[in-house]
Specification:
Elements: E1 2-7, H1 10-28, H2 36-53, H3 57-74, H4 82-98, H5 107-111, H6 113-119, H7 134-140, H8 144-155, H9 159-175, E2 179-183, E3 187-191, E4 197-202, E5 208-214, E6 218-225, E7 234-240
Antiparallel strand pairs: 1-4, 2-7, 3-6, 4-7, 5-6
Helix pairs in contact: 1-2, 3-4, 3-9, 4-9
Length: 241
């Protein structure tokens, strides 16, 4: 089964993009393969650009407060795992306290001379060649400890944001429940009530993938063939978050 996620508003679009960027940085910062350096710096530069355009901290704080209300409600239910609920409540309270108190979190990336020097070249096809970016190739020759120290410094200001975003998305996904649906001749539409994104799970053996159009009140899913499969009814599972 393959799971697809689609945001229904701009806030969730930013959340999912940032989650993707954080994931790319986390995988590539180990610098274990030849493609990791380019992926790492592209991730850092994308992170700076996304957060310069849209500071998500206020929206994320509001969403964490909603999650906290839900967790407090769980605490009143019988046979609840009290230690888990207390741990979640503590995490949420910590992030709600930390996020508004962060300074301009993109400042370190913006003012770093090394990152500023390579930023423009990353928009040029093949711009990471040694003759274009000698400073990057010098950096790659540094010891693992020196490179790891730089990565830690570049990402230090983002740790509360990363943790808060991951926790919010984790709770949102875990609270949602999948239900079986069928898209007649590959088309399905429904009302979106108080949800920020939808999740679609279907078998890769069907040979179809979903495209979604919608907003905060309605959405439509059209399943398109990967190759030349004819239109057909598509069984899938749907969850709203």
């Amino acid at each position: 089964m393959v799971t697809f996620e689609h945001p229904l508003n701009e806030k969730s679009r930013s959340y999912l993009r940032l989650e993707y960027i954080f994931g790319q940085i986390a995988k590539s910062r180990r610098l274990e393969t030849a493609s990791d350096p380019e992926a790492l710096f592209k991730g850092l530069l994308d992170l700076h650009e996304v957060l310069e355009r849209s500071d998500i901290r206020n929206d994320l704080c509001k969403d964490l407060e909603k999650q906290l209300s839900t967790v407090k409600h769980w605490a009143t239910m019988p046979a609840v795992d009290t230690s888990m609920v207390n741990h979640l409540e503590s995490q949420l309270n910590d992030f709600i306290y930390q996020l508004p108190r962060l300074s301009r979190i993109t400042q370190t990336l913006k003012e770093d001379r090394f990152l500023s020097a390579i930023r423009q070249r990353f928009s040029i096809p093949g711009g990471c060649c040694s003759f274009d970016l000698p400073q990057l190739h010098f950096w790659l020759s540094l010891s693992h400890e020196e490179k790891a120290s730089d990565c830690k410094r570049w990402l230090a200001d983002f740790q509360p944001l990363i943790g808060a975003l991951q926790l919010h998305l984790q709770l949102s996904r875990e609270k949602s429940q999948f239900s079986a649906q069928v898209a007649k001749t590959g088309f399905y539409q429904d009302v979106a009530e108080d949800c920020d994104m939808i999740r679609i799970k279907l078998s890769e053996n069907l040979g179809f993938f979903p495209t979604v159009s919608g907003h905060k009140t309605r959405f439509a899913i059209r399943f398109l063939p990967h190759n030349d499969e004819p239109s057909q009814d598509i069984p899938f599972h749907l969850a709203s978050c």
